[in-house]
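Usage

Read records sequentially. Each one opens with the input sequence:
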Amino acid sequence: MEVLSDDELIAELKKRFDQTKQALYDVKMISKKLEDVNHKLQLSEQVKSNFVSHMKNEINNPLSCILGLSQQLVSSAMDPATVSSAASLIYNEAFSLDFQLRNIFAAAELESGDTSLQVSMVDINNLITSTVESFHHLIQDKNLTVHFSPNGDEHQRLLFKTDAERLTLVISNLISNAIEFNEENGQITVQAQVLDDLLTLTVSDTGIGIDMAQLHRLFDRFVQGESGMRKSHKGHGLGLSITQAVLDLMQGSVSVNSPEGHGATFTISVPELPSDADADAFSVDGNEFLFGDDDGVEAF
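and closes with the structure output:
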C-alpha cells in the first residue's frame, strides 16, 4: 500500500470533500427541481379539479333547463306567448351549451396535437357579421350596441385565405368576452382590415376593464379573475387560452389593451395561410362551398 505524504493526504481529503460538497449541491438542486415540479403538478391538479367541478354546473344547468322546459312544452297546454318565451329560453341555454362544448372540444384537439388547418377563401366581412349575429340574443339582453367597421364597404367581400372554422372560434370568444364583461347599454366595436396579406381585427368594449395584476395570466388555461362563490361572471377560463392557442396554430398573435375602468380592446393579427391550390374552397361564414367547372356552386 502506497504511503501518502502529509501534503498528498491533505490534497486527497480536499478532493473528496469537494466531490462530496458538489454531490450534496447536486442533490439539493435536484430536490428543489422535484419540489417545483410537484408544486406545479399540485396546482395543475387543483386547477383541473376546479375546472371539472365548475364545468359540471356549466353543462348540467343548461341541460336541466332545456329538459325541464321541453317537458313542459310537451306535457302541458300553453298560450302562444308562454310557448314563445319557453322556446327562447331553450335556444339561449342550447346556444350557451353548444358554445362551451365547442371550446372544450377545441381544447382537447389542440392538447392532443392532432390538428390541421383547413384553408379556404373566406369572406371576412360576412364571417364577422354572421358571428356577431349569432350572439344577438345576448347582445339584446344587455341592450348593447355593436359597431362593425370593415375594411371598405361591409356589403363587399373582403376575401382572405384562412381557416374559417378556427377564425370563427377566435372571433366568437372575443365577442362573448366583450358581451360578458360589458356594462348594460354599453358598446362593442369590431374593426377589420387586410393589409399586405395580414388580417388585423380588433374587438373593443366599454365594460369594466381588466385588472392590471391579472393581465399576465389572462391567456392561461382555466384561469379567471374571479372564482368560487363570489364569481359574478359566466365562463370557465378557457376561451382566451383557446384563442391564443388557435392563433399560434395559425401563426397569428393576440394582444390586449385595457386602461383601468375603460373597457378592453383585443387585437388579433393573422397572416394569410398558404394553400396547395388556388383556394378552390370558398367560405362565406364558416360553411364551405366548392366551385365546380360550371357556374353553379356545390355545397359540401
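Summary fields computed downstream for this record:
- The chain has two domains: 1-115, 120-299.
- The domain at 1-115 is CATH 1.10.287.130 (Helix Hairpins).
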